[in-house]
Amino acid sequence: MNIKNLSPSSWKVLLISLALVYLSFSIWATTYWERITPAKAGTLAIEFGEPDLDYRLPIVAIGADSPLATVGGRIGDKVFFDHYIDVKRQLGSDEVIGLTLFSNGQSRHVALKPIASSDFTHNPIAARADALMAWACNYAALLIALLIGLRRADNGSMRVFAFMMLSFSPQTVAWYLPGGPLPNLFMQLILPLNYAAYYISLVYFAFTFPDDRPPHFRRAPVRHVFKLFAVVVLVYSAWYVADAFRVLPWAARQWISIIAFKMIVQTMMVSLALLAIWYSWRNSIGVNRQKLAWIGVCMGGVVLALSSATIATMFGAVLDPRFGIVQDTITFLCFVGLGYAILRHRLFDLGFAVNRALVVTIISAMLLVVFGVTEWGVDKLLHFEGREKNVIFDAVVALGIILCFHRIQHWVSHQVNHVFFNHWYKAAEQLRRFLQKAEHISDASVLKTRYCREVTDYAGLTGLAIYVLDANSGYALQDSTLSNAPATIDRNNDAVVDMRHTLVMVDLASCQPGLPGELVFPMIVRGQIIGLVLLGQKLSGGKCRPDEIELLTIATHQLGLHLESLRVEHFERHSAALEAALKFEREAHERETTLLRQIIGDALDVKATVL
Asked: For residues 142 and 162, what is the distance between their CA atoms, to the nearest angstrom?
């Protein structure tokens, strides 16, 4: 199945379905978090060797307090677990593990209760922190996958990236799941298939980001290398499934072990992904170069951390129990860096949805902390007698939080915009500076041209058109960067009638005005619509945010005021010029009349003298 060729609706259904499945398993596994604490962490205190022909695990070391030792197990015996997952996962001291013990040519089924594990008793705080970081990465991966997959469903590379992030989750979940048939199937089938999805989607994304199909990926040798890698990964996935179901032929297992096969695949994945990102970074400039650098550092760190244990084990290294903490710490820091890059540097433009989600999350966390600290402080410092007084105090605290909510929301929203969405703030500030200087522009045509450019840059539009009311032809086009903008808009157009009724912006999708573009804003002066601004679609394909609509409304209103002011100034200058011309003509007429009277008078005087 090629996820890039799915329709947007089919892709969203697939994405949400997989996310719900992985989220269900994640929540289920999270409920067993206590199994990494000294209270419930369990172990069988056995070390196994490589499985034999019948997938029986030979015992190479066994603790004196091992529950298997109490039933007669010893070094050299072999065991066969009822569930494949029990060999791989973290056991709990509160469960029972079923297995078959092969000893002295006889076999018998035993049920063992794990003893307390010492792996988490040395530093329980570090163990909890390790689990917390692992689960934070797991849920962050699911959230990023949903946000990017749903918001950027039109982009093939973004779909692949979302699929890759979604495939990260089962790698964390599997270790924490309990025993049983369903978790066993998860480990035997879903996890190996997920490995294939993760490896292939990661390398494909590295080859195609940020241009979806860059020039180097169109080259036949590059495509052949990717196809070869995909075939190797699929073979490895099938190999893993067969081995997990314990049906892989002995000859195949002797030829190459599953750990060696995994090391080869992970080495190929890391090499190809980092090489592709490095090549794209080397041949990119500006914003794309910055994005590729973040991708290379963050995702490269994640895959190196996940692959390091397999590679080290393959070369015979004995891993310290704290190595897992180092792995999860690196992965967690890489996810933090990825989240920062997405929000601060627009690694993937998720827009307004993430902004609001951040604001709501931070506000909720702050209010919960304030309420919790207040409750704790009062409980420690003050002592109320009676339930009624305690309830009254809780109500007072809640009322105080409600009264402060608006200020807290404004402050958090302001900080989020400045820190993570600084490009929004800078674009808005640039438009506001233009609006402050616009009153000093004395030429209407220059004002309209500058307005087109500034608003287009601010909102990231494909173009816009400015119309001014003409007494004879309706709203006449004055300036435009929008293709197919009509020369005039009738005064009785549906959008104009709606604006005349509401005096606010109209979404063209909500009516049938027959106009290109997405939004139309009115220029209102003294309650009358003297002009219109027709906005095209955003280059990103998204919708204008509420804060953008608010600022565009202000900008359009000021444009209308400035144009009306310049029109009045023009009429005043024209009127003054007419008055000056009339005054000149009147004075000239008076001079001519005076001169004529003088000439006539002089002529009469001469005539009288002659007579």
From this structure: 9
- Indicate whether 383 pLDDT > 60: no
Assess whether pLDDT exceeds 80 at residue 178: yes
pTM over the 0.85 mark: no
Cβ neighbours of residue 55 closer than 8 Å, sequence gap 6 or more: 80, 246
Q: Is 82 exposed, middle or buried (0-12, 13-18, 19+ CB in 10 A)?
A: middle
The number of beta carbons lying within 10 Å of the beta carbon of residue 406 is: 9
Eight-class DSSP state of 72: T
Q: Which amino acid appears at position 598 of this protein?
A: Q
Calpha distance 160→163 (Å, rounded):
5
Mean pLDDT of the 315-319 span? 60
Residue 79 has a pLDDT of 94
DSSP reduced 3-state for 61: strand
Largest CA distance in the chain: 170
DSSP 559-584: HHHHHHHHHHHHHHHHHHHHHHHHHH
**In the chain, what is the straight-line distance between the N-terminal and C-terminal CA atoms, in Å?**
124
Under DSSP, the state recorded for 154 is T
> Counting every residue, how long is the chain?
611
Question: How far is residue 54's CA from residue 79's CA, in Å, rounded to a whole number?
Answer: 10
Helix (H, G, I), strand (E, B) or coil at 107: strand
* Contact predicate 536/501, CB 8 Å: no
Give the residue from 496, 500, 448 showing the smallest Cα distance to 474.
Answer: 496
- pLDDT bucket at 157, cuts 50 / 70 / 90: confident
Lowest mean pLDDT among 124-138, 160-174, 315-329, 436-450: 315-329
Burial zone of 126 (CB within 10 Å; 0-12 exposed, 13-18 middle, 19+ buried): middle
> CB–CB of 534/516 below 8 Å?
yes
Segment 499-508 shows an average pLDDT of 84
Is the confidence at residue 465, as pLDDT, over 60? yes
Q: Which of 169, 177, 153 is nearest to 87 (CA)?
A: 177
Alpha-carbon span 602 to 580, nearest angstrom: 32
69, 161, 341, 454 from 287: Cα distances, Å: 62, 19, 12, 21
**Residue 178 near residue 95, CB atoms below 8 Å:** yes
Burial (CB count within 10 angstroms: exposed 0-12, middle 13-18, buried 19+), residue 123: middle
Per-residue confidence (pLDDT) for residue 446, from 0 to 100: 87
Dihedral, 553, 557, 558, 560 alpha carbons, nearest 10: 140
State which amino acid sits at residue 161: F
Q: If DSSP codes are grouped into helix, strand and coil, which group holds residue 97?
A: strand
Cα separation, 168 vs 95, in Å, equals 28
Cα(259)–Cα(314) distance, rounded to whole angstroms? 7
Taking residue 563's Cβ as centre, other Cβ atoms within 10 Å add up to 21
Written as one string, the DSSP assignment of 473-539 is TEEEEEEE-STT--SEE-TT-HHHHHHHHH-S-EEGGGS----SSSEEEEEEETTEEEEEEEE--BT
d(CA 375, CA 379): 6
